[in-house]
Structures are given as C-alpha cells and as structure tokens.
Write a structure and sequence with these properties.
Length: 151
C-alpha cells in the first residue's frame, strides 16, 4: 500500500507497546504480542500511520525498566503526528473518566480522538469493554483480523 495511500491512523497505548515484554506463558499474551509486532511491521512499511501523544511519553518515561523505556520511545520517530496539548483534551478525558476509565487511559483515548485515529489499539480489557463512539477501541488480534478483512 505505502505511506499515505489509504493509510489509517492507529494509536497504540502503553500496555500494547509493552506487550512483548510481558510474561509470554499465556497463549493470549503470546498471540497479542505477535499481532502487535505485526502491526509495528505495517507501521514501518507505511501501511498504517502511527499517532503519538504526551501521555505515551509520560507513561513510558515512568517505566522502571530502561530497556523497555528505550525500545518503546524509539517508536515515536515513526509517528506521523504527536499530540502535546493536555489542556485541549481535558474535557474529553473528563467525559471518559465519567464513563469509568482511569485517568491515564482517559487521556490516551482523548488524544487518539483528537488525533483522528481510526483505531485505539490496546490489550486493556477495562478500555475494550467501554463503548466509545469517536474511536474504535480494539485488541491487537482483532485489529489484525479486521485489517485483513478490509484490505
């Protein structure tokens, strides 16, 4: 496909970026890891547009594991846009918190909405179980299934 041609914007949250560093003894975790790594390949190939936010930076900067921090931070260079304005998304984040999302999760999703992401890719069931109209929250495995059905 190539960059820019029918490329869709995706926002991966920190739990998704960190999935390969989780304990891989669970089959679901291994499958989510493989799906997430494939999504990264699609980003590198320009078939998907990665979008980034200050929340990703903040959460990643607070990761106690240096190697994980560095590996996740490298993905910022692949982002086609980077949302840096907390104030602008606060109202939307508050709406999402009222739906039951935790603070960081609400800000992640709000940034994805303001970045006009088509998909918010996460492994966090608390986010996946919420119905958010402005962006589709999806697990990496389900995203790959959807991607292949649409392409």
């Amino acid at each position: 496909m190539g960059a820019g041609y029918n490329s869709m914007k995706v926002y991966l949250d920190n739990c998704c970026f960190n999935r390969p560093f989780d304990d891989q003894s669970s089959l679901v975790v291994r499958l989510e890891t493989e799906a997430k790594l494939y999504i990264q390949d699609l980003i590198k190939e320009g078939d998907l547009d990665l979008v980034w936010s200050f929340v990703l930076d903040y959460e990643n900067d607070n990761n106690p594991f240096e190697e994980v921090r560095e590996r996740v931070a490298e993905w910022k260079e692949f982002a086609v846009s980077d949302w840096k304005q907390a104030g602008v998304v606060t109202s939307k984040a508050n709406e999402l918190m009222n739906m039951g999302l935790r603070v960081k999760d609400a800000f992640h999703v709000a940034c994805a909405i303001f970045l006009d992401a088509s998909y918010f890719i996460t492994t966090d069931k608390k986010i996946l179980n919420k119905h958010i109209n402005e962006v589709e929250c999806i697990n990496p495995i389900d995203f790959i299934r959807r991607y292949y059905n649409e392409n």
